[in-house]
Structures are given as C-alpha cells and as structure tokens.
Design a protein that fits this description.
Number of domains: 1
Shape: globular
CATH topology: Growth Hormone, Chain: A
Distance between the termini: 34 Å
Low-confidence stretches: 1-13, 196-202, 393-435
CATH class: Mainly Alpha
Radius of gyration: 21 Å
Mean pLDDT: 78
Number of strands: 0
Structural class: mainly alpha
Helix content: over 70%
Order of helices and strands: HHHHHHHHHHHHHHHHH
Largest sheet: none
CATH architecture: Up-down Bundle
Number of helices: 17
Length: about 425
C-alpha cells in the first residue's frame, strides 16, 4: 500500500511538471501558430492587397483544418504514440509559420495558416494521451486547465515581434518559426514515451448514458456559440483599431499583450467555476466577452480603452475555454478522447462559421456595426446560460471512492498480479515511439 501511495505521489508531481511542458507546447501551436495571426492582419492586408472578406476566409482555414484533424487525431496518436504525435504537431507549426513568412498571395498564405491549424488539431489530443498515462486522474481537469492557459502565453509572446519589428511581419513569423523549431526539440526530449496502463482484467469504461449525451450536446452548443462570438475579436480587433481608430501597428500590439496576460487568469477562474457554479460563471464571462466587443467598437481610437477591452476579452475567453474543457472531463471521466475534445471542436467550428461571416459584414456594414451584431448574439446566449450543464444532483455529494475514479487510477498503477507499477520513460512504450 505504501508503494502504491508513493507511486501516486510521484504521478501527481509529474502531473504538475507535465502541465508546464504542455503549456509551452500549447503556447506554440495555439498561441503563435493559430491565434497570433489576427495581430498581423493589418500589415498583411496592406502588403498583399487583400479585402476583408478574403482575409475572413483565410482566417477560417486553420479552424477548418483544426476540426478535421481533431476528428482523426486520437487514431493518429494511437498509431504513432503520444510523443511522436506531439513532435509531428510541432513540426506542422514550423511548416505553417515558415510558409506564412514567405507568403506572396492568398494561396500561399492560406496553405500556411492551414498547416498551423493541423498543428493545433494534433497537439491537445497528443498531450491528453500522454496525460492519461502520467497524471493522477483526480487532477486531469486542473492539469488540462494549466495547459490551456498556454494559449495566453503564446499570444503574449507574439507582441514583442510587433513592438520591435514594426511593419516587418515576415521577420516576425520567421522568429516564430525558430521558436517552433525549439518546440519540436522540447517535444522530442521532454514528452515521455509512455502508454496508458490497461490490465487484461480491467473493466471496460461504462457506456455513455442518455443524460451524459444530452449534457454533452448542451456543452457543445454553448461552446459553438462562444467560438462564433469570439471570432470577431480574434480576427478583426487589430484591424478595427487600425482602420477605424487610426491606431498604429505598434499600439495594437499592446492589445494582444494585455489579452495574453489577462488570459492567464482563465486557468484559475475555470478551476473555481467548475467546482462551484458553472452556469453563473458562464453567463458572467460571456457578458464580459460581449462587453469587450462593444467597448472596442465604440472607442477604437482610445488606446487605453482598447487595451482594457483586450484585458476583458482575454480573461473571459480563456476562462470559458478552460471551463468547457473541465466540464467535458467532469461529464465523461476517464474518456479523454471525447470529453475535453468535443468542446474544443465546437469552439473551433463556431470560429470557422463566424470568421468569414464577420469578414463579409465588415465589408458590407463596417466594423462597428459588425461587432455590435456579434455582441448582441453574445447577450442572447448569456441569457440562456442557466441551461449550461452544471453539477447535477446525481453528481453532488458522491465521494470519490464511490465514483470509481480513484479506484480506476489505482488499477492503472498495478500489473496483472496486483503488484504496484511505476510508470517511467522506459516502461509501457507506445508502438509509435519504439526505437
């Protein structure tokens, strides 16, 4: 028993270490490769001479590739192994960022951002697969929330390139490419080559109930709506501040810095929210998200108000994505290939639907009117947040040992004879990670 407790303690410590490594890799694949693009849209539009509608379509491409790849990522991870899939994801970041830095028109730019979406689609499932083998099941939600906050780190890292390389977006993306190469090396050397331990006599996971499917559907719909609303800010906030508010590219860089720093608080908010009142927190954060849209649209030329809108947006967006992630894990404990993946897919689908639409609306109605329309949709969704899948009476007050969560984890730490099993970098090697 003591040896088992020791193994659990080691797993929990490695879980925190794993969370930090995952946050760094998420910062590259999500922050730099996927979400930094909106910051450079004004410069790219001017040099390549593209319309708002064209930019809207291109900005939707990484979201589309993210969704497509996310559907097959669990199979890719199972075949290649967690470490090799993580390396593959980081390699697509290198490819996509390099292509963007060399883009000469819509086609080459579109291929680059599409490759960046592939990177993001592979990264989270690969890290989740490794987390199942290395991390105590009781802290899966918290570790996932910390990793999710890596997006904010990546967004913040993109800002110095704007501040010190004014007008030189190609050099900025070249610097991102070099960082992504470092990410490939980190993935290879720091992601352990492990598989989930599944004894031959282990019971299969219980079937998903009708109530669970209904809650997952509600979660997916709320996540889709949030992604749809947030797409306006992610894609056109710097463009709005530059064209409507006459701010410089250097000044719009402060928006993304504020967004990234504020987004780090999302890990704390989402953790507290999921354990207390998810529905109320969802409504509050969604109202903050819509406030950021209306505030920027109303005062795009006021740098301090614009930065404040970015602070609100960053905290709200990262809190909501973290909340969706933890809710998915809570609704389907032990099924990390579905629970946390489904809301991420829904958010990406919402952004893929909203990005080209806001591009068309900007061309037809203008920035302020387009942002106001998306804010109105956000208010409507916030009003129906009481239907968010919070804690049910069936879930409340059930000790962990009666849920089977801890028992399942203890089972994973035993071999077929019931002896304690400690997972190391040399044990339980994935087929795809064998040398």
């Amino acid at each position: 028993m003591n040896s088992t407790n020791t193994a659990i303690s080691q797993q929990q410590i490695s879980g925190m270490r794993f969370a930090l490594i995952g946050a760094i890799l998420i910062a590259i694949s999500f922050g730099l490769a996927r979400f930094a693009f909106g910051l450079f849209i004004p410069q790219i539009r001017d040099e390549l001479g593209m319309s708002a509608s064209t930019i809207g379509v291109i900005a939707a491409l990484p979201l589309i590739s993210f969704v497509i790849v996310s559907l097959v990522a669990p199979l890719v991870t199972k075949y290649f192994g967690a470490r090799n899939t993580t390396v593959l994801s980081a390699s697509f970041s290198v490819l996509g960022l390099a292509l963007i830095s060399l883009a000469t028109g819509p086609i080459s730019l579109g291929i680059g951002v599409f490759a960046c979406g592939i990177s993001a689609g592979l990264m989270m499932p690969a890290l989740t697969s490794a987390m199942q083998a290395l991390v105590d099941r009781s802290i899966h939600g918290r570790v996932s929330s910390v990793m999710n906050a890596g997006t904010s780190i990546g967004v913040a890292l993109s800002v110095p390139a704007v501040l010190f390389l004014v007008g030189a977006w190609r050099y900025a993306y070249l610097s991102f490419t070099l960082i992504a190469i470092i990410g490939v090396l980190l993935a290879w050397y720091l992601i352990p080559s492990v598989s989930r331990v599944t004894p031959a006599n282990a019971a299969p996971p219980p079937k998903i109930t009708v109530r669970q499917w209904w809650n997952l559907l509600k979660l997916a719909l709320f996540a889709f709506a949030m992604g749809f609303i947030a797409s306006a800010y992610w894609t056109f906030a710097p463009d709005l501040a530059t064209n409507l508010g006459s701010l410089s590219s250097r000044q719009t860089g402060w928006l993304w810095l504020a967004l990234g720093i504020a987004g780090l608080g999302g890990a704390i908010v989402s953790d507290l929210a999921d354990r207390n009142n998810p529905a109320i927190t969802h409504a509050l954060m969604l109202m903050m998200l819509t406030t950021s849209l209306t505030l920027l649209a109303a005062s795009p030329g006021q740098i301090y108000l614009a930065v404040f809108s970015a602070v609100i947006f960053g905290l709200a967006y990262m809190s909501l994505t973290g909340l969706y992630l933890m809710t998915g894990i809570r609704l389907l404990p032990g099924r990390l290939s579905i629970g946390p993946v489904l809301p991420f897919l829904a958010v990406a689908l919402g952004q893929a639907a909203g990005t080209p639409l806001v591009g068309v609306l900007v061309g037809e109605l203008g920035y302020a009117e387009s942002f106001s329309i998306f804010a109105a949709v956000g208010i409507l969704i916030a009003l129906i947040s009481p239907f968010y899948p919070g804690h049910s009476e069936e879930d409340a007050g059930i000790p962990e040992d009666e849920t089977g969560l801890q028992a399942a984890f203890d089972y994973q730490l035993q071999d077929e004879e019931g002896e304690p099993l400690e997972i190391t970098n040399t044990q339980q090697t994935d087929k795809g990670d064998e040398t």
